[in-house]
Amino acid sequence: MDKAKRMNRIFGKDGKTIIVALDGFGFSAHTEGVDFSVKNVKNLLKYGLNCALVTYGQAQMFAEDLLDVPIVLRVDGSVDVFNNNVPDTAQFFDVTDALKLGADGVVCMTFPGGDKSREEFSHKMLSSLAKQGTEWNVPVLAETLPCSYPVIDKYPNSGNPEYIKTAARLGSEYGADIIKTRFTGNIAIDKKIVENAVKPTVALGGPKTDNKTYFEYVHNLMQAGVKGIACGRNITQDPNPVGKVAALSALIHDNKNVEEALQIYENVKSEY
Predict the structure, then answer these.
(1) Taking the CB of residue 100, how many other CB atoms lie within 10 A of it?
(2) In the Cβ-directed half-sphere of 243, how many Cα atoms lie within 13 Å?
(3) Cα(13)–Cα(116) distance, rounded to whole angstroms?
(4) How large a percentage of the chain has pLDDT more than 70?
(5) Residue 160, CB half-sphere, CA atoms under 13 Å: how many?
(6) CA nearest 111: which of 85, 142, 144, 84?
């Protein structure tokens, strides 16, 4: 399969995507809802979900549940899983592992502006994956996080739009096909991040908040030119995940407004 076909499995025909991030076990001890979501993720496809981001173990343990679900393999993970700040990461898998599992892409984190050794390691990992991706026609998604995994006081620029913009471009320069990064929800600011990234951009899941605030955030991302969203707990921990995906699909794939998305969320009820 060529890379374009795999990209078309990650993104819809409109070039946009909704990705559910199910890789929480690789980074945190707080994983409520993840296993349940993996076993039921195929139910979300008909409501607009495009893809699932999974760990190597999930791809094996839940192979039957993921059979018809386009997946992207997480190749890196935390080396201190009980620290929610994810102080450091390491690479555990690569493109060849993804191919053996039938994945449509791989994803890793980079930390521009972070500790020197961490930034160097993460960019070397990305460039190596990009070379493999070119050789095997597998898309590489780079999660470009300025300075650190969370936005924290230790790294005051971790949420700085100028740093986010530069980090996104670095991901593209090191060979990523897709950039997953932070956005602000401010259309004018986020447009600059999208433009600087050059490659298609996907937003991190965003704030865990009420639906109206969250849908306004996603709506603004679409106006800024973001191509979709990759979210974990905003789907996996929602009491109505089917309704949440249907509402996100209305915003992302159907260009609906926030009020329409809220109504869809109320009208579409979970099957599980």
Answers:
(1) 12
(2) 16
(3) 40
(4) 99
(5) 14
(6) 144
